[in-house]
Specification:
Blueprint lengths: L21 E3 L5 E3 H6 L13 E2 L5 H6 L16
Antiparallel strand pairs: 1-2, 1-3
């Protein structure tokens, strides 16, 4: 089951579980669409894999299986 991380791991922007601009790699690293396009070149800075739009969990399942609240260290906060 996807972890649904709560923020962009590049710029720190909050990403709600139903965020339209949340992107993930196959390891669930999470980034906002702006960072993916403008800073990351559509590749995960952690694993080098591609980034795709994160699927949304249905509301009924989100209540039973909530999104993560754990924040991770920023992967590229100091890069250009």
């Amino acid at each position: 089951m996807l972890e649904l991380r709560p923020h962009c791991e590049c710029c720190g922007k909050d990403l709600a579980p139903d965020a339209e601009d949340a992107m993930i790699c196959s390891f669930e690293c999470t980034f906002c669409a702006a960072c993916v396009a403008q800073r990351l070149g559509h590749a995960c800075p952690n694993c080098g894999g591609g980034l795709e739009r994160r699927p949304r969990r249905p509301a009924a399942m989100l209540a039973r299986y909530p999104a993560s609240t754990a924040r991770r260290a920023l992967a590229c906060a100091t890069s250009p």
